[in-house]
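<instruction>
Derive C-alpha cells from the sequence

<record> Sequence and C-alpha cells follow
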Amino acid sequence: MPITVQDSVAVAPHIYRVLFENDRVRLLEVRMKPGDSSAMHTHPAYAIYPLSDAKATFTSPDGESVEVEMKAGETLWHEAESHAVENHGPSEARVILFELK
C-alpha cells in the first residue's frame, strides 16, 4: 500500500498552527507534548527555530528513523521532505517553522 503524505496542519492540527501565510512563505507554530506524535506529512523547504530544547524521532516514508536533538535558539535548515515525528523529550517541544513556497 503506498504512503500518502499530507499537509502537517491537516494531519495534526493539535500540534501545528498557522501563524502567518502568503504566496511566498508559511509560518507555523509547533507544540508537541512529551509522547505526542504526528502521522506522515510533507514540508516544502523549511527552516526551524526551536523555542525550547527538544528531542524527537523523525521517520521517513521508507521507514528509516533518525533521532534529533534541537537546542533553543539554534536555527536548522531542511530541504523539502516527508516524515512522521514523535517527541521523545521530557518536556513540550516548541518550534517556529518557516516553510518556503
Notes: The longest helix spans residues 8-11.
